[in-house]
Amino acid sequence: MVATAEPLADATARAWHLLAAAGSPSARLDAEILVAHAVGRDRSWLAAHPEVTLDQAAQAQLDEWLVRRAAGEPIAYLRGWKEWHGHRLHTDARALIPRPETEIVADLAVVDLAHRLSDGTDALTAWDVGTGSGAVALVLARRFHVALALGRLRLVASDLSSDALELAAENFSADGFDGLVTLVVADLLEPAGRWLPRPDVVVANLPYVPSAQLDGAGSLGFEPSRALDGGPDGLDLIRCLVSTLPETMAAGASAWLEVGLGQAAEVAALAESLGMTVGVHRDLAGIDRAVELRAE
Ligand SMILES: C[S@@+](CC[C@H](N)C(=O)[O-])C[C@H]1O[C@@H](n2cnc3c(N)ncnc32)[C@H](O)[C@@H]1O
Questions:
Q1: Are 160 and 185 a contacting pair, CB within 8 Å?
Q2: pTM of the prediction?
Q3: What is the CB < 6 Å shell around ligand 1?
Q4: How far, in Å, is the centroid of ligand 1 from the Cα of 226?
Q5: Is 3's pLDDT higher than 90?
Q6: Element (H, E) at 136
Q7: CA 29, CA 263: separation in Å to the nearest integer?
Q8: Residue 52 confidence (pLDDT) above 60
Q9: Do 128 and 271 lie in a common domain?
C-alpha cells in the first residue's frame, strides 16, 4: 500500500483510518494491536517507539492483516492467539475464540472440583464437553495438574469437531499437559459409561446462538458455525445434553452449563423436570450465565 519505509506512528494512523472507514467499532485499538504485532512487539512498546520504521516484510504482513481485518476477520485469528483466563491460547479458524464470560463457568467448575478433591475423593472424572480450543479444560488442567499426575482425577476434553480437538491438543501440548488430558471426538457425552467413565463434574459451553442471529453475523461468520449455531431458539444442543445427564453422569455429579441471554430459565426447568437440583449464576454483566445441575 505504501512504497517507502513507514514510521510506526504513520502506519498506526493509516491503519486506524482504514479500519474506521471499513466500519470497525474498535479501529484504533485494532490498528495499534496489528502494527505492534507486525513488528513483534506490544502496544506499550509501540507507543514508546513511534519513529521506528516497518521493514518491507512487516509492511507486507500488516497490509495483508488490514485487508482481512477490514473484511471482519477477528484479531485473535489474525495474530493467532487470545489472552484468556490469564494465559495465551492459540486460536485459529478451527475453533471458537474463547469469550470472557466463559471464564466464570470455568471458575465455578474449579471450585466444585476443588471441594470434591479436598473431601479425599479419588478416581474423579471431569469432562469438558465441546472443548473447542481447549480453553476450559486447560483451566482445570492447570489448577489440578497434581491430581491429574497422581491419577486422582481424570480430565476428558471432547468435541464433535476433530479440527477443534487438534487445536486443543496443540494448546495442551504448549502448556506441557501432553498425556494428562483424554481427548475424544464424540457427540456430547456419548462415550460416558461405555468406554469412558461417567463424569463427576461436567462443564460445557455448547453452541447457544439462535440460527437466525448468525445470518450476516459479521465477524461471527469467521468462526465455525458448529461452534455457535444452537438451532432455532439456540437451545438444541443444550437440551440434548441436559436430557442425557441423568443417565450419563455419575451418582452425585454436577454439571456447569454456559447459556445465552434469557436461556437459563428454560434450561433450569428442563433439568428440574428430570429430577435434578438447579442453581443459576450471573456473570459480571448481571446476566444469568451458568446453570448448575446436580444429579441425585
Ligand atoms: C461455543 S463453542 C465452545 C468452545 C470452548 N468450550 C470455549 O468455551 O471456548 C462450542 C463447541 O461445541 C462443539 N460441539 C458442537 N456440537 C457438539 C456435539 N454434538 N458434541 C460435542 N461437541 C459439540 C463445537 O464444535 C464447539 O467446539
A1: yes
A2: 0.94
A3: 95-96, 98, 102, 129-133, 135-136, 158-161, 164, 187-188, 205-207, 226-227, 237
A4: 7
A5: no
A6: helix 135-143
A7: 32
A8: yes
A9: yes
